[in-house]
Design goal:
By secondary structure, this protein is mostly helical. The protein has twelve helices and four strands.
């Protein structure tokens, strides 16, 4: 039982990261119909912003050595600026383009960012010790878990509650929801399209920054493609949960994280190397049963 509970907490922790990434991707898709594959690279930028730009093998902390009360807002600001810059330079000129064009543009942005990181920091992964105190374990009964797992889950819950309150009660949040339901009608009613889209990029940047810090604290390693697997699994989570549905993105993120962790824990040892194959088989089964996702967006269904 103790072993199952530990696996369950690990699953919730991984699902939390997927849910936060899926929220960032789902938020932009809901408003702009953009599948932003560069979102994973926003996570990479947030992590690399902690160290001095250098191709040396050993990383030298810059922002990463600051107190967390200053570190977190600065990293969030950096990622938000990058996200807004991609919108202003790439996606805004392509506003009237088709969804495939926007998706290819996001692929291009992703490769530009990855190669930019390569030029500034070199190709070798770098070890970074961020918030090592969070790796200490807490014991409750016979249950032993790192503090970081609890912090990851608590941070995710706090961000999701905050985002939910913002979307429901803040004026700008209501405008974002209106734009997600019917963007053109929202514009007719006075919603400033570029402002709302920029706001969505800023919120997705904050979510990416949070994931970059939590993920780096867990792995302790920087790589120019570190955010790509997270974005891939999060995109799968968005599809499983229902394209354009923010609750669906959260549910899909947690579901993919739980399935992945439980398969890693309970598959026979010889089959664990094929864990991802089993995970995607599960995804196929879910989509065969619920082609529109677990919680399909009403606006998407109506358009189909």
């Amino acid at each position: 039982m103790i072993n199952f509970l530990q696996n369950a907490i690990d699953a919730l922790s991984l699902g939390s990261l997927y849910a936060l990434v899926a929220l960032g991707i789902g938020l932009l898709f809901g408003i702009l119909r953009l599948v932003n594959f560069a979102h994973g690279d926003f996570i990479t930028i947030g992590a690399y912003s902690l160290i001095l730009p250098s191709t040396n093998v050993v990383a030298t902390m810059l922002i990463g050595s600051w107190h967390w009360e200053l570190l977190i807002p600065v990293v969030c600001a950096i990622v938000v600026v990058v996200a807004l810059a991609t919108d202003a330079l790439v996606f805004r000129p392509l506003r009237r383009s088709t969804a495939p064009t926007l998706m290819i543009a996001s692929f291009a942005v992703s490769y530009v960012i990855q190669n930019g990181v390569l030029m500034m920091y070199g190709a070798r992964p770098k070890a970074v010790n961020l918030w090592s105190a969070l790796t200490t374990q807490i014991t409750i009964g016979g249950l032993r878990e790192p503090v970081l797992q609890v912090v990851t889950i608590a941070t995710t819950v706090a961000l999701m509650v905050g985002l939910s309150l913002f979307l429901r009660h803040a004026r700008w949040g209501v405008q974002m929801r209106a734009a997600a339901e019917d963007f053109r009608m929202a514009q007719y009613l006075g919603v400033r399209g570029n402002f709302v889209i920029g706001l969505a990029f800023a919120v997705s940047g904050i979510l990416a920054a949070a994931v970059s810090l939590l993920f780096l604290a867990q792995t302790g390693a920087l790589s120019n493609v570190m955010g790509v697997p997270l974005a891939l699994f999060a995109f799968v989570a968005v599809v499983v949960g229902g394209m354009g549905s923010l609750p669906g993105a959260v549910v899909g993120g947690f579901l993919v994280g739980i399935v992945t962790t439980m398969l890693q824990a309970y598959l026979p040892p010889d089959l664990r190397v094929f864990r991802d194959a089993f995970t995607f088989t599960f995804v196929i089964i879910v989509l065969l049963v619920r082609p529109a996702g677990l919680i399909p967006s009403r606006s998407i269904v109506e358009r189909v």
